[in-house]
Task: inverse folding
């Protein structure tokens, strides 16, 4: 009979619905929604495993209760190759035991050895995570830099095209002569006799009249 006092610890977090139902619109409006939990200062338990805030991001194997199979100072690439080779050899030994001696007690030992090798391989791969994070950040920043440079270059190209268009427009303007200035100084005939006298009295600037003629001829 199983012990009734045994505490069952789930390896997965609680369903989100248990938290979502507490943060309804009515609870938030009436200020009845639970406040965020305070930061944990010392130690805590997650999925049945104890953790401490002072622990390293990647804890040593000894802190996790595993025996270290490689020295403190080593080449990770070489050790991963050795572990991979040992993993294959132990797996072949396990297959041989299952074929010839299926009831041998060495079967459990081989399974434990394989589990320990997998833990070491997983641990060594996790030690590359900080380096992977730095490289990922570096690649992202280089990509953003390249995109900004390309955007700036496209803007510069458009700016040069606009400058060339403006220069071409100024170059296509005809040169002003004395005849153009004298004709431009005459008042415009609007067709309204009441406004004609007023227009003759005021007149318009020669350059304005020239621009109006250019627009009319376009």
Result:
């Amino acid at each position: 009979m199983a012990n009734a006092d045994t505490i069952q610890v789930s390896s997965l977090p609680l369903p989100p619905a248990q938290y979502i139902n507490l943060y309804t619109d009515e609870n938030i409006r009436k200020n009845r929604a639970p406040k965020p939990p305070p930061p944990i200062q010392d130690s805590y338990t997650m999925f049945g495993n104890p953790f401490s805030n002072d622990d390293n991001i990647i804890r040593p194997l000894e802190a996790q209760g595993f025996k270290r199979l490689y020295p403190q100072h080593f080449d990770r690439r070489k050790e991963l190759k050795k572990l991979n080779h040992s993993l294959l050899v132990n797996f072949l030994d396990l297959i041989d035991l299952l074929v010839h001696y299926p009831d041998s007690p060495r079967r459990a030992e081989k399974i434990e050895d394989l589990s320990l090798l997998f833990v070491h391989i997983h641990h060594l791969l996790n030690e590359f995570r900080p380096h992977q994070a730095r490289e990922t950040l570096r690649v992202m920043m280089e990509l953003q830099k390249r995109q900004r440079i390309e955007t700036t270059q496209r803007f510069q190209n458009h700016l040069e095209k606009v400058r060339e268009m403006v220069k071409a427009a100024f170059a296509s303007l005809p040169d002003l002569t004395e005849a153009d200035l004298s004709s431009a100084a005459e008042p415009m005939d609007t067709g309204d006799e009441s406004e004609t006298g007023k227009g003759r009295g005021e007149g318009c600037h020669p350059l304005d009249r020239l621009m109006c003629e250019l627009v009319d001829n376009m």
In short: The first strand starts at residue 43 and ends at 46. The longest helix spans residues 129-172. The radius of gyration is 42 Å.
